[in-house]
Amino acid sequence: MPTPDQTDVTILGAGLSGLATAVLLIEAGLSVRVLEAAERPGGRIHSVFDPATGTALADLGPTWVWTAYQPVVGRWLKKLDLMTFAQYESGAALLDHGPDRPPATAFLPGQDGSVRLVGGPQAFIDALVSRLPPDCLKTGCRARAVETSPDGVTVTASDGRQFGSARCVVALPPRIALQSLSFAPDLPAALGTALAATPTWMAPHAKAAILYEEPFWRAAGLSGRLASQTGPIVEAHDHSGPNGWPAALFGFIGWPHSVRRQAGAELIQAVRAQLKRCFGPDSPDPVAVHIEDWAANPLIAAPADLTGPMAHPQVGPEMLRQPVAENRIRFAGSETARRSPGLIEGAFDAAEHAAAGLLNELKS
């Protein structure tokens, strides 16, 4: 049996909540190991990057924060020295009624208080990773088993590597944690039921990022907002940078995941055709169209996420936030949060709650 790699805390998942938990514990003087199954950190925060410079050009996951209503986000923006700018909303929206009718224009209300990060939510990930010590984060390392004993916690990865610690924080979507990890001893039955009942925000969705040479719609008096009854994009917004560059739109794909899967590469062609129909035959062609189908990602979407309603997660029962296995294991995915579960605010709230609880236990 290999000797476990020993730290004070093992964190499973290098999404926003896992990375924020790691930073808080490291700042408190603990040694931490973060294990991430994917080849990159960030979880549902994912970006289109400029291949030449590595600059994040567009978001494939969450985009907005609401700093006027989300004090936890405000604290982390200040802590990480990040800036925001207002979502571009000036001008009319286009209403797409399908290929048999020309689009109409209308002024649609924006989302009150929505702002974007300079550099996108990727800036949160980059700032948090920069605060981790060398060799703290291990990507491409998928945890399979979590075993607790009087001596601590041992996490076994799919390749047989073992990681030992006094505590473990599971910062995965609750359903993914339940289906991908085996726990010894077993989790309490009520907790397993609660984890299984907690939907993963964004899991059924697909998002398109469309890059252009310039935000041509602004000069035409359009906001970049698009609402469609037919799709494939059912809702789009201006996604350009604070000074109009990089120029981009983003849109939510309204086709069900089963239809998206069957469409394959034809989905991108359908998006291009829809944009040409809406903005006119003489409108510029996109430089690139990127589509992230979160329903196809087994690290994000559980089977139950693809059959249930696309409802935003509600604040779950308190047992999701309580330690188990004699206080050795805590859950801290964004959906376990006390506020804004599933959102960026929820990820930070879950991290703060898990880190504070763990540190209080160690002090006592």
CATH 4th-level superfamily of the largest domain: FAD/NAD(P)-binding domain
Rounded to an integer in angstroms, the radius of gyration calculated over CA atoms is 21 Å
Query: Which range best describes the helical content: under 10%, 10-25%, 25-40%, 40-55%, 55-70% or over 70%?
Result: 25-40%
Tell me the number of helical segments per DSSP (H or I, 4 or more residues long): 10
Q: Average pLDDT, to the nearest integer?
A: 96
Q: How many domains would you count in the coordinates?
A: 2
- The CATH C-level class name of the largest domain: Alpha Beta
Search tags:
FAD/NAD(P)-binding domain, single chain, Polyamine Oxidase, Chain A, domain 2, 10 helices, alpha/beta
Secondary structure topology:
Blueprint: E1 5-12, H1 16-27, E2 32-35, E3 47-49, E4 56-59, E5 64-65, H2 71-80, E6 84-86, E7 92-96, E8 104-106, E9 115-117, H3 122-130, E10 137-138, E11 143-149, E12 152-157, E13 162-170, H4 174-180, E14 182-184, H5 189-196, E15 206-212, H6 216-219, E16 222-228, E17 233-238, E18 247-253, H7 257-263, H8 266-279, E19 288-293, H9 303-307, E20 329-331, H10 344-363
Parallel strand pairs: 1-2, 1-13, 2-10, 7-16, 11-14, 13-20
Antiparallel strand pairs: 3-4, 5-9, 6-9, 7-8, 11-12, 12-13, 15-18, 15-19, 16-17, 17-18
Helix pairs in contact: 1-3, 1-10, 2-10
Give a description of the structure.
This protein is an alpha/beta fold. It folds into two domains: 1-45 and 121-201 and 300-364, FAD/NAD(P)-binding domain (3-Layer(bba) Sandwich); 47-117 and 204-298, Polyamine Oxidase, Chain A, domain 2. The protein contains ten helices and 20 strands. It has helices at 16-27, 71-80, 122-130, 174-180, 189-196, 216-219, 257-263, 266-279, 303-307, 344-363, and strands spanning 5-12, 32-35, 47-49, 56-59, 64-65, 84-86, 92-96, 104-106, 115-117, 137-138, 143-149, 152-157, 162-170, 182-184, 206-212, 222-228, 233-238, 247-253, 288-293, 329-331. The strands form four sheets. Strands 1, 2, 10, 11, 12, 13, 14 and 20 form an eight-stranded mixed sheet that branches. Strands 8-7-16-17-18-15-19 form a seven-stranded mixed sheet. Helix 1 (16-27) runs parallel beside helix 3. The chain starts with a strand and ends with a helix. The relative contact order is 0.19.
